[in-house]
Amino acid sequence: xxxxxxxxxxxxxxxxxxxxxxxxxxxxxxxxxxxxxxxxxxxxxxxxxxxxxxxxxxxxxxxxxxxxxxxxxxxxxxxxxxxxxxxxxxxxxxxxxxxxxxxxxxxxxxxxxxxxxxxxxxxxxxxxxxxxxxxxxxxxxxxxxxxxxxxxxxxxxxxxxxxxxxxxxxxxxxxxxxxxxxxxxxxxxxxxxxxxxxxxxxxxxxxxxxxxxxxxxxxxxxxxxxxxxxxxxxxxxxxxxxxxxxxxxxxxxxxxxxxxxxxxx
Length: 265
Known about the structure:
Layout: E1 2-5, E2 12-15, E3 22-25, H1 28-34, E4 39-45, E5 49-53, E6 58-64, E7 67-72, E8 78-83, E9 89-93, E10 105-109, E11 137-142, H2 143-148, E12 150-151, E13 154-155, H3 158-163, E14 166-167, H4 172-182, E15 190-195, E16 203-207, E17 226-230, E18 233-234, E19 238-243, E20 245-247, E21 250-252
């Protein structure tokens, strides 16, 4: 269990669940709120936050319509941000944590707003604005493969053993391109797993794609980075399963997404 505190230690809280993906945010608001070149943020389910002390010291500032930044009213330490549109999630400031969250940053985001006096020197992916992982990611598989490789509340496709990670995409259009390039002859039904990155147990990295031997290359045409999951996909992160539809020589996005239990007994 992680613990966190502000500078004066008046505010203290526990984190009882998994911390979500970490990013370094260079937007002007995060820079001003943190007083530094960037803020180190991680998504966190609000149900995992348990206040130990000082809840009454926490104040919130509405920095943008519907977006609030929380801080200790006594020492000014930034604690988290939240948005009205997603009450189930906050974005915790990693500087408040006492221990290791077990995550490392996926990327630098909002680099178009970065401080002119700071140079990014690492090899992490860089996004001009928000990274695509802020929404959902997707994995394509067949129904037979999904059933065959699920065990102990996780899914481990053959690519995990072969390449060390589970292939995913960050956008619908890219997933459809992957279906055309690599799954044209796959036995139906062909499924899309909709995944919530916040719930992932394994490390997620956004990386450049690599050609698949014998497959098409249309999905490689853009400069998009692909989310790669370095470990089994825990089934608790799968929020829906949809069936890709054939539309002539093309694939069409699922009409609806069902619960995972509909496909995995």
